[in-house]
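Hi R.,

Here's the chain you asked about this morning:
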Amino acid sequence: MFKKSPKNNEIALLNDSLSKYEELGIKEKSIQIWEDGIRTHGKSGTYEWWYTDMELNDGITIVVVFYTKDHFDLKGPARPTAELTLTYPDGTKITQTVSEPKGTVINSSKEKADVKVGDCYLKYVEGNYELYFNDGTIEFSAFMESALPMWRPDTGHWYFGDKQEDFFAWIVAQPSSNITATLTRDGVAKDLKGTGYHDHNWGNIPMNKVINHWYWGRAKVGEYNIIASDIITEKKTGYTRLPVIMIAKNGVILEDNQKLTTVIRKDTIQHPVTGKFYDNSITWIQKSNDGTVYKVEMIRDRDIVSASLLEIISPFKRTIAKIIGMNPTYTRTLGEVILTIEKDGETQQFKQEGLWEQMFFGKNKDAYIYN
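And the predicted structure, written out as tokens:
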């Protein structure tokens, strides 16, 4: 189900030039606290969100996202939204949303992550994060203690088109955290512990215009923390592959040079829910300058979410989207992550459960990729 596409002329790249660092006011390998503050004006023509996810004891997973807009709505007015998705081990999923009136600009700081929607908030406090969500039916509070420093791949800005005016940006403000939380539902409070993650995205062009699909995942394997993605752009920029990987050990980032990253996909199926292709095995190969070779393989076990993103918009917009052929889908997977490290003829291997996703904006069912 893999088809190779000829390279088009328009540009798609993760910009790492010195001039771009200077233009953005940021530094290489040095992430500042203000970078997790609000980066757009939060109104029409932009999108922005702060994402958190947590794997907690008893098999519970929780995702909380703060949006400046109505999810991914680029053209629409400001509408601060906080959304919590609670998934139980048996697959039961509950999603609750808190939104403020359309036209309201989100309450957020430029100096640090300090974003508020209704009574819900996410805020940076002395190197860690505090999270709170309450929609009247579910109350969730979490203290997220940072286990790794803030990180971004190069400038964290992917640019599209010859003029490089259109962009998608990403920083990982908390690559790994230790979670202490309390979940209250139906009047019953439950104390939880686990591990978590927080990143931050923003941009000025609809993602479906520039990105065909991506895989993104993270895992704690042995003493190693891994974040990996495989972004494939849209047809206009030749279905260009833009892979990223970060490998850290004991709080120190060891590898994040995407120019040395290779991705291999295997055991491709047609997903029974989305109808799109899905790769049951994805391997990132990272060759270090010191001769070390890291192989990170993610092997699918089960999906905890798989759905059309058209479900989150109004029936009218859903009908229009279907008429013009849009079919964005999302699948979130749990499975085994295998880290193999080869150096000087010796091999080490570590295995652990991990979490990854496929976000698919394109309507194609097969994979078109230009390496």
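Residues 1-6, 312-324 have pLDDT under 50 and may be disordered.

Let me know if you need anything else.
M.
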